[in-house]
TrEMBL record:
Transmembrane segments: none annotated. PROSITE patterns: ADH_SHORT. Its EC number is 1.1.1.47. This is Glucose 1-dehydrogenase. It comes from Halomonas dongshanensis. Belongs to the short-chain dehydrogenases/reductases (SDR) family.
Length: 256
């Protein structure tokens, strides 16, 4: 493979929440581009099995780590152990996330707390453990995963929208602090993709039809359609791009 400005070969990339879903597709995409990928989830045996499968399919080096991103000290311990073994990641993708739906009047406090911890606080815990070492080295690429709900609300998911809106402003704030260390921090905000998280939505014919009508592309996204934007944001091609949020949503957030 000839080197291009999109070259990420041998870059060490930690993708949180990559045991399945979008994170898994993103990690696979990085592995296919030659990155040295660290797969992550809470079930170590499951993550190890998936890591072996991706390594076999892509020929890339794939590691497996497991920690709960809502536990700040477990996160720090696991990432420090990872850095001791493999060095400081070049790329961090903050993807792990959670959805819980209920009408606002019935929304439980525990669910609010779990969403804020998983979708927002965890980005701080994971990133803050890595960025001092990235800063010292003088390079790093951080990509946070937002959502169309970073911009648009929808009934029954006000807390999710609040966390995903927060992800965009956290991205901008991190960019403000970290650009001087040659660390670029950006956000990818996906539209609707069929994963385990939104099984209830794509199995509901009415919702399915709504997504197809509401999206200018007239369809759900395919998970591998996120990879090109990710590779761009992880490569030298984006070295002067920071604090941005790119919607990969078939045009959904551009129209009413
Ligand atoms: P999935 O439910 O399919 O996967 C979630 C991933 O996050 C799993 O790998 C899970 O690992 C991990 N995770 C969840 N909570 C924790 C935790 N406390 N500690 C460690 N890992 C955790 O979700 P999706 O793939 O659909 O979503 C991934 C991201 O994309 C989320 O941030 C979501 O908000 C966002 N997104 C998804 C869209 C979609 O259409 N699917 C649209 C827009 C945004 P484990 O194996 O441990 O459960």
């Amino acid at each position: 493979m000839q080197a291009t400005i999109f070259d990420i070969r041998d870059k060490l990339a930690l993708v949180t929440g990559s045991s399945r879903g979008l994170g898994n597709a993103l990690a696979r995409g990085l592995a296919e581009s030659g990155a040295h990928v660290v797969l992550h989830g809470r079930d170590l045996a499951g993550v190890q099995e998936e890591a072996r499968a991706i390594a076999q399919e892509t020929g890339a080096r794939v590691e497996a780590v497991s920690f709960d991103v809502t536990d700040a000290s477990a996160t720090r311990d696991a990432i420090e152990a990872l850095m001791a073994e493999h060095g400081v990641p070049d790329i961090l993708v903050n993807n792990a996330g959670l959805q819980r739906r209920a009408p606002f009047n019935e929304y439980a406090t525990d669910d609010w707390d779990a969403l804020v911890a998983t979708n927002l606080s965890s980005l701080f815990y994971v990133s803050r453990t890595l960025t001092p070492a990235m800063s010292e080295r003088g390079s790093g690429k951080i990509v946070n995963i937002g959502s169309v709900q970073s911009k648009l609300a929808r009934e029954t998911i006000a807390p999710y929208s609040a966390t995903k809106g927060g992800v965009v402003l956290l991205t901008q704030g991190m960019a403000a602090d970290l650009a001087r260390f040659n660390i670029q921090v950006n956000c990818i905000s996906p539209g609707y993709f069929k994963t385990e998280m939104n099984t209830a939505l794509w199995q509901d014919p009415t919702f399915n039809e709504w997504v197809e009508k509401r999206t200018p592309a007239k369809r759900w996204g395919h998970v591998d359609e996120l990879v090109g934007t990710l590779v761009y944001l992880c490569s030298d091609a984006s070295n002067f791009v920071s604090g941005q949020n790119i919607f990969v949503d078939g045009g959904m957030t551009s129209v009413v």
